[in-house]
Amino acid sequence: MNDYELINETVFNYFEGYMTKDRERLEKAFRVDTANMVGYWKNPEGEQELICVSMKDEIDEWVSPDYSTFPFGEGKIMSVNIFSKHGATVVFDCGGRFIDTFQLVKMNGSWKIVNKFFVDQ
Questions:
Q1: What is the pLDDT of residues 82-107, one digit of tens each?
Q2: Which residues pair with 34 in a beta bridge?
């Protein structure tokens, strides 16, 4: 597979892993030991609030039995920019609910998400 196909696979491991609470797919997508998630989340009052969490903690929450996933529509990659042999950025539409941007690193022949920034639409 070429880099674009590998990046597509990584992003959809995240998206499908989130939707199905599949820890294995989520851990394939992220460099779990170093990845972070930062973004604007709508708080209970409907105001945008900036949050920052480690992906290790977030994945633990996403796969817990008590967590309710968001009912996203179809996810789609809006853009991919491979800016070096080790780095890329992706803009991803999570079914119109969130817009995610990812920073990815290529290590040992595979792409991993090291940072996720999102905006709650």
A1: 999 999 999 999 888 889 999 999 99
A2: none
pTM score: 0.90
Sign of the alpha-carbon torsion through 60, 64, 66, 70: positive
CATH of residue 76: 3.10.450.50
Number of domains in the chain: 1
Residue 8 lies in domain: 3-120
What residues pair up with 75 in beta bridges, in sequence order?
A: 94
- Do the beta carbons of residue 36 and residue 57 sit within 8 Å? no
Q: What's the Cα-to-Cα distance from 30 to each of 36, 43, 49, 80, 110, rounded to whole Å?
A: 9, 26, 24, 17, 11
Q: Which residue has the tokens 């609910």?
A: 97
Nearest to 89 by CA among 119, 55, 113, 53: 113
Q: Output the pLDDT for position 69.
A: 73
